[in-house]
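Protein data sheet
==================
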Amino acid sequence: MTFSALAVILIYAVAVPLPGPSFVAVSRATIANGRMVGACAALGVTLAAAIYAVSALLGISALLTAFPWVITMIQIGGGIYLITLGAALLRSHFRAADNTLEPSQHSRSNIDTARLKDALSKGFAVTIGNPKMAVFFFGLFAPVAGQAVPTEIRLMVLLGIIAVDLIYHQLLAQFMAFMAQSDGARHLTYWLDAVAGALMAIFGGGLLFSAIGIT
């Protein structure tokens, strides 16, 4: 593996733990609904990251440069989704103020396929709807995206990026599941809904404003 390829993987390993919508989505899903649901949300995040990584290696950035309206549509769709999700989390926060909330017990006794699929789709949507991920990946993969770089090297970089993302987000889900077992888990979920909802709404609003500025 060349130095450039190794550098790409190391840079991603340093960048991926930075808090963002995917961090919030996995943390909230785990604390509110349990380990399995959080793991599914984490898998959704990794699937979306893998799509962006493959697109970057295939040179899709050139296509997006030629058709900038695609990024604009991603911004609008992602912004609307994040605002909607943020509003739902804020409603959950205010409803919990008048009700006893025990998410961890509920999730352990009643985990169904629908809930797992919902977590997977939310983790995927939050990540794929973030155009900053596209910009990040296209810039990150620039050193290894050229035709001069052997296919096996690009494949190793792709697998390395996916492995880093998968390991980090799965570990995040495990850590949050451990935190949910504490005596303060109920209050943690209560305030996480408020913080996550506000951050999702703010981030979504920023995407919409950015899209309006581009158009």
Observations:
- Confidence is low (pLDDT under 50) at residues 100-109.
- Residues 3-14+21-214 form one domain.
